[in-house]
Amino acid sequence: MNATPRPADATPRPADTDLVLADIAGLLARLLEDEYGLDDAEIGMETTFNRDLELESIDLVTLAGLLEERYGGRVNFAEFLAGMEFDEIIELTVGRLVEYVVTSLKAAEAS
């Protein structure tokens, strides 16, 4: 049986919130496992980096590297954080990051 790829298989998929959430949850799980030996954290859109995951500022630097590795220059995490007040960073949710990544990927696709 020959499987002929559909045209949609040959083109990159547009940014999708669920896919990006799964990607970011995987990156965070990898970070938590590597840094803290935790591998069972539940990560969803409402999960906070500080309160729920207890990430420190150095962890955000590591996350920036993981995002760069995954998305290349299409997503600039440092720029994203630079536009926030300290309190916003403390309350940052996975969902807000997912929304930023989706927006960044859509902008990159459009250009």
From TrEMBL:
SUPFAM superfamilies: ACP-like (SSF47336). It comes from the Bacteria. PROSITE patterns: CARRIER. Gene3D superfamilies: ACP-like (1.10.1200.10). Residues 15-97 form the Carrier domain. InterPro entries: ACP-like_sf (IPR036736), PP-bd_ACP (IPR009081). This is Acyl carrier protein. It comes from Streptomyces triticiradicis.
